[in-house]
From TrEMBL:
This is Uncharacterized protein. It comes from the Bacteria. It comes from Microscilla marina ATCC 23134. The lineage of its organism: Bacteria, Pseudomonadati, Bacteroidota, Cytophagia, Cytophagales. It holds the Pfam family DUF6272. InterPro entries: DUF6272 (IPR046239).
Amino acid sequence: MSLEETTTEENENFDFFDYYAQLNNDNIILSYKGPLTDVLLSEFSRDIRAKLQDNRRVGKKVFSVFMELTQNVLYYSKEVNHFGDQDKVGTIVILQLEDHYKVITGNQVMKEAVPLLLEKCKTVNSLDRDELREYKRKLRDAPSEGESRGAGIGLVQVALTSDNLEVKIKNLGEKYAFFALFVNIKK
């Protein structure tokens, strides 16, 4: 879990052909960056369920993680679409790999929120299944923290469904950072 700096040179070295090749890779179930709406999430949900219907047990886990992480983007993203309804903006990727699925979400956050986000993820990753269940009960009974709607319960639920959470943070200037969460779900 680290904070990376973005340079102008990195921004100017975008290779569209590499991007296109990666998008055409067969292992991508979903790749989206943009405003998130209830209608769009409903469509994504339908598509994900259809693509993962061969293994219902794992498909339910992937879907559950997708919903939890996407709700986090909807609640906490600091980037908004400036056209229409001011919808929150985020990135969602679901990959199918040889032995697992990877769900990745990302969104802008206030830079001052980064230490708390990292601490929550570190705490969740340090607990075993029984400790996670106990921690989840404790969070349910605790008063919510300021802007937090679920006080980290969603992250705990994701950890109960998957491997450890992997977090990457990229500095976006003085005020914002990009928070990316990577979650693996075994097949």
